[in-house]
Amino acid sequence: MHQHDLDLIAEYAAGTLGDDTEARARVASCQTCAQEFNAQSSVLAELSGIEPALLTEHERARLHRDLWTELRSPADTASSGLVNPRWRSWAFGAAALIVVAVALVGVMENFGGGDAAETVGEAGALDADSRTTSGYARTGDNTAEDGEGAEEALAPDTTTAADSSEDTPYLLIAREVRQQPKSEADTLSIDEAQSECLEESGLVEHELVTGFETLTELLVAVPIAADREVAPVSFIDPENCDVVHIEE
Amino acid sequence: MTTPPTDIELVGRVVSGDHGAFDTIMLRHEDRVFSVCLRIIGDRDRALDATQETFLTVFRKAGQFKGDSALGTWIYRIAVNTCYDQLRKAKRRRTDPIPDHLDPVDPSAESAIDSAALRPEIRAALDKLPTDFRAAIVLSDIEGMSMAEVAQVLGVPAGTVKSRLFRGRRLLAEQLGAH
Description:
The structure holds 2 protein chains of 2 kinds.
Chain A: H1 3-14, H2 21-29, H3 31-48, H4 57-71, H5 74-78, H6 88-110, H7 114-124, H8 169-179, H9 192-200, E1 206-209, E2 219-223, E3 233-237, E4 242-247
Antiparallel strand pairs in A: 1-2, 2-3, 3-4
Helix pairs in contact in A: 1-2, 1-3, 2-3, 6-7
Chain B: H1 7-15, H2 19-41, H3 44-60, H4 71-93, H5 110-116, H6 120-128, H7 131-142, H8 147-154, H9 158-177
Helix pairs in contact in B: 1-2, 2-3, 2-4, 3-4, 4-8, 6-9, 7-9, 8-9
């Protein structure tokens, strides 16, 4: 069969021919053409009815958790990942400024400049203690110029809802939790398995919250004693009691 | 009402360190990337690994995206290449995959998985195809991409895509006809 005929038959089977007169005639008059057409058509009919495969919520949570764990690994932050190579020189410069600032603080304290020292500390301090499992560097907006770009790659994620044009499901749920006054919260009376899960996750003195339309397969927990408006919201995989995400 | 950011704007934000922008990219494309990987690889766990690997690459190479194609096209090209790597590694390991219609790890999502699962005969027939043909069939006939987009994703001329589709469908028909 001439190659041109195969192209014609394939396009006819796929329904992409503008004018299928010639193709129909060939299929009608040529047994080989007809067999090819039937083979192509039957496969296309079989495959086109297949629905798209979607991630389950469990898989989606695992994907995000594993991805950010990988991106936060030391090898990745050292390469192209979380600290933009263009800003390394800014980071070094900022670090030098901080050293100078600290030295100045020392000098000023000796001469009674306590308030100024506090101001300098606020401007330049690195917050190395506030690392969380959800934390990663926000090195955007030229923060290096303000002396904050020297933050480590694993600095806490202090993004507010206003910073992102589209929020993650975790952030949306955390926002919803924080907008609920405690007395109106849709809290769960937890069963033994969930209680054990909270304990295993290290989240004793936490309460579970429910009533969300997304991430329904995860447990959502907040500290009982904390101010709900600022409390970290933890997302737990009940299969293995792993904390898959914390929204600070 | 603000207009949603364009692909170039989103990628620019990712390069600048905006992780919310990267989350946006993921939310827009993760399901389709996973679907492509699953149809090519045939195993949910490995498809999930390939999806993760794809977005890791997207993150690390965001600075290389110039907007010559749609962002989705660029991402799916990375996904297909990642799947090729996975399949090559799997061949070397010679392990038996968990079929894509079973998920023992997440049985609570069984209904969601089953509704999108391939019939075992189709899965087996796809697995027998050369990976080039399989990728073309998956992108075009299952995921519904246009010929032009498939050509961009695979990085080959449209004529090559046509040829792979024709020969791939013919091989599938022979396999399915044999059942």
